Amino acid sequence: MSSKRIALITGANKGIGLETVRQLAQAGMTALIGAREAARGEAAAAQLKKEGLDVRFIQLDVTDEASIASAAAKIEKDFGKLDVLVNNAGIGAPESLPSTAKMADIRAVFDVNVFGLIAVTQAMLPLMKKSEAGRIVNLTSILGSIGEHRDPASPIYGMLYMAYNASKAALNMFTANLSHELRETKIKVNAAHPGWVKTDLGGEAAPLETPEGAWTSVYLATLPAEGPSGGFYHKTVHMRW
Known about the structure:
This protein is of the alpha/beta class. Helix content is 41%, strand content 14%.
């Protein structure tokens, strides 16, 4: 079993995921770039290896059960445990009203943002239970906050990206329930809102760069033993569910 801390980041060949890999590797971890496409994943790993970081690519399609099982088996064979899981993979959908949102869009978003995330987490939990300090970080969004959507004074009031919003609300519930289930273990489970970040999803108008966008994930991935579990955070601030 590896003496170093091992971190798996899904959807990590670009954007916030890639920057999270960089920062966790800079913190001394072996960081695994989970990516669906081998060419992009290998290229991302090669880029960070040039910076002297312990980074490796692992093929992982969060919507494919065989791919998830294969990734878990490889991590077990190579390292014998998993210390950090950052469920970063996610997709968006067009802005839509609840009354007219296309079912195909809703299903596609939930397949990645909810069902894929749960499937990966369940597959990796046996490995995380071997860790001395397991940390699960689920990438969510302020758009998943029901409280914010109901508040006319909220900056997201009226932002009706229904498929995406609902998927993140479901992710938040999974986070809360899983943290409760694991409350007597050494595994902490939290949700991270990265902020509005310049990514393919966030767009060029976003005010934050990817290093800032990765900060909350890294903070929650490196919590001390006395740190929180079952929360919804942006940086160190607990947000409204």
